[in-house]
Amino acid sequence: MTAPQPYVTFPGNAREALTFYASVFGGRAEMYTLAEFNRTDGPPEAIAHGEVDGPVRIGGSDAAPGQPGVSMHGLMLALLGTAEPEVLHRWFDALADGGTVVDPLGPKPWGASDGQVIDRFGLHWLIGYEGQQ
Predict the structure, then answer these.
(1) From which domain of life does this come (predicted)?
(2) Is 128 helix (H, G, I), strand (E, B) or coil?
(3) Which pLDDT value is given to residue 72?
(4) I need a labelling partner for 115 at 20 to 30 A (CA). Which of 18, 81, 90, 130 fits?
């Protein structure tokens, strides 16, 4: 099944962000600099393209000079039922480290468990599963 993959323009911290997401979700972060792509439209060490290839895939790059970085309003990245509850709790806690918990991950009145967190890089996550644990 094909699913959308977030591709984020980071404000100069793509290396740090993609490394963080690889540590949270597992997998490997692969990154290429502007210099490696023979580009001269920014600092040579800036990330021209990167990707985390794990159970949760995220791509991204550093913003070009004058280009804004990520800003999320009215959008959440949903990880609902995408892993076992224990894994989802681990991911939620890791994303909350240095971020902001909007709604703690826990049982809700409708019978499911979910929560929201904005991580330290500004991505808004909705994480949950059916049934309560």
Answers:
(1) Bacteria
(2) strand
(3) 83
(4) 18
The pLDDT assigned to 127 comes to: 98
Beta bridge partners of 59: 7, 51
pLDDT along the chain (133 residues), means of 10: 85 97 97 96 96 95 90 92 96 98 96 96 97 64
Structure tokens at 93: 């806690």
Q: Note the pLDDT of residue 14.
A: 98
How buried is residue 27: exposed, middle or buried, by Cβ count under 10 Å (0-12/13-18/19+)?
Answer: middle
* Domain residue spans of the chain: 7-62, 77-129
CATH class of 7-62: alpha beta
Ranges of H-type helices in the chain: 14-25, 85-96
Q: Which residues partner with 61 through β-bridges?
A: 9
Q: Tell me which architecture the domain covering 77-129 has in CATH.
A: 2-Layer Sandwich (3.30)
Whole-angstrom distance, CA of residue 109 vs CA of residue 31 = 42
Query: Cα separation of 120 and 3, whole Å?
Result: 24
